[in-house]
Structure formats: C-alpha cells, structure tokens
Fold:
Amino acid sequence: MKPLTEQEIRSSFINCSKGEAKRISLPRDLDERPWDDLDFLGWRDPGAPDRSYLVTERGGRPVGVTLRFPSAQRGFLHRSMCSLCLTTHRGSGVSLMTARKAGAAGREGNSVGVYMCADLACSLYVRGKKALDTGSRFEESLTTEEQIARTVDHLTAFLDKLYA
Structure:
C-alpha cells in the first residue's frame, strides 16, 4: 500500500458524513507505519473504544470504512478466527466488526459485519511481521503471496457488500 496523507484518509470514507470524517481520530504515527507490508491501514479510536477504521486501495484510490465492534470481552479460552487473514486468536483477539453500508442503505441503518483481528493487523500476521500474543496461524501449503492475495480478496468481498 502506498503511504497516505491525513487529507487522503479523511476524504476516503464511504460510510460516514464529511463532518464525521473530519472528527475521526487519526493515528499519529502515519510516517512510521510499515506501508510496504500493509494491505490496508487499520486503527482503533483511542477515544471511542467501540470504534475502529480501515482504509485500503480500491481502483487506484483510497477507500475508508468506519467500523464498530462490541466492547464485551470473551473468555481467554475462547478461540476465534479472523475472516480476512484466517489467524486464530484467544479471548477478544477477533471481534465482529460492523460497518454501515454506503449510500442510502447506510442512512436507513443497514450494515454489514465481518469477523476481524481486533487489532486490525491482518497484513502483518499474514507476512509473519507481527507475533501473536495468543493464538496461532495455520501451517498452510499456500505461499505468503497467495495468502496475501486471499486476504485482499476477502477484504474486497467485504467492501463489495458495503456497496451492494
């Protein structure tokens, strides 16, 4: 993914108003992000524990999505799998992220959900750049590049549902 500026990120959101996008708390470490290893930029809002954000490239331009997730903690022995990168986590390491649909459907309250790594570090897990606190990645016969392509395909399918 190419590095993004604050303005590019704020103008990329498809499921919130321009006013809401202006109020989003952006990560302060944009210059330090491992952009070459990211399929999407994801972060949690430090001021709103039930909100997170995701920005990816689609059709050569950035597309951002606001996400919500429940704050309920799961037991440490509970295991869940991320629908994007297929990483398993214990406890609350995977969460159901919901996003309002784009356009009129979203204004009517329609939303789409996906189970994702709660820290939004799917890109780094697939590449082996971030170690898991708990949980695991399956040993696969796919190459890392094929796993990355699958993760991007799963993200694209989620975004397609937001536009539908």
The mean pLDDT is 90. The two ends are 25 Å apart (CA to CA). Strands lie at 40-44, 51-58, 61-68, 79-81, 87-90, 94-100, 111-117, 136-137. The chain has one domain: 6-163.
